[in-house]
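Cross-check.
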Amino acid sequence: LAASSVRPHPAPQLGLGTSGLWDATLLATALGLGYRLLDTAAFYGNEDTVGRAVQKAMDDKIVSDRKDITVTTKVWWSDMGYEKTRESVSQSLQRLGASTADLVLLHWPGRWLSSDARSNRVLREGSWKAMRELQEE
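Predicted model, tokenized:
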């Protein structure tokens, strides 16, 4: 997540949540219909499909420039914490077939990870720190 990949323009007006979608051709077709944001997550189990859809849209000239597509993914709550978040983002990028992501979110960050509120706070802070560092790398 290189800082240079942060785009100065606003997010796309039309996005598609991909939970439950595993057809790269369908997702590439959505891009052809004007969708410019694909929202996925490690938990959805379809990051590889989203990556293939983006590649197909580029190969088929549905979209002329990768910068015209925004891909969002998310770190699942069980991967909260510094090391787990870094590993989760790395795995997501591998599945997406990408070196950077446009937006990475903490999926359901309010979820209680343990009965100890302080532990939950420490895990979320660790995740935040990891994501900030990844953005600068």
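The beta strands are 15-17, 37-39, 70-75, 103-106. The radius of gyration is 15 Å. Passed to J.P. for a second look.
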